[in-house]
Design brief:
The structure holds 2 protein chains of 2 kinds.
Chain A: E1 2-8, E2 11-20, H1 25-38, E3 42-53, H2 55-71, E4 74-78, H3 82-90, H4 93-96, E5 98-100, H5 103-107
Parallel strand pairs in A: 2-3, 3-4, 4-5
Antiparallel strand pairs in A: 1-2
Helix pairs in contact in A: 1-2
Chain B: E1 3-10, H1 15-30, H2 34-54, E2 67-74, E3 78-85, H3 113-120, E4 123-129, E5 132-140
Antiparallel strand pairs in B: 1-2, 2-3, 3-5, 4-5
Helix pairs in contact in B: 1-2, 2-3
The chains are: A alpha/beta, B alpha+beta.
Amino acid sequence: MEIGQDVQGGLTVMRLEGKLDTVSSPEVQTALMAALESADKGVVIDMSEVAYVSSAGLRVMLIGGKTAKAAGKAFRLAGLKPAVAEVFKMSGFDRLLEIHPDVQKATA
Amino acid sequence: MSETLELTLRNDLAEHARLAAALSDWAERQGIDPGLATTFELAFDEILANIVGYAYDDADEPGVEHAIEVACRWDGETLSAEVVDDGRPFDPLSAPEPDLEAGLDERQVGGLGLFLVRQLMDEVAYRRQDGKNRLSFAKKQEA
């Protein structure tokens, strides 16, 4: 898993590239918690290069959503591939988390 | 005429990467849709995480290793797979479904993996035979 980030208008944009699975989820969780802590307004996760998300990845997203809510910060996902969007829908996560078509819309 | 991929894994999460690479190569040679292969890679992640995390009472003892046998079969239309482990008896089909209606605060983080496998596959079957768990699942390739 490759993790990159930059700041756009007070929002930290985290770019994930690879597979968000059992093996990669712990490092993504660590990076996400640090980003939520340091971000002014919140975190946007660019998912456009994520091939798939397993339940371990969903768990990290849920923790991200709960942590952001408790801190009064934004937590948005952007650019989900169709197969990834399907997993979010199956698990009901599309109703729990704020999902945008792309980073541009998520940071607007 | 069907083609088969067989692999024996150790009970170690790192083995998923080896399986994923072998599956991807094999699927490409068979002309299987990459999206279907990815769905199976996701299912294997859930199933292996479950076996490695919960199936063995002696997993923490030094020098103890268990073999997990994986087989994939392609008949030109349907991809099917079987995972066999010698862990404690566990029927994934009996696991309770997660509460999909719970809000962000109430939503629990566990119980989703095997639910996703059941949702993603056309068929999932479990049997306990000769002291082993045998989980099989299949999905037809979309035309």
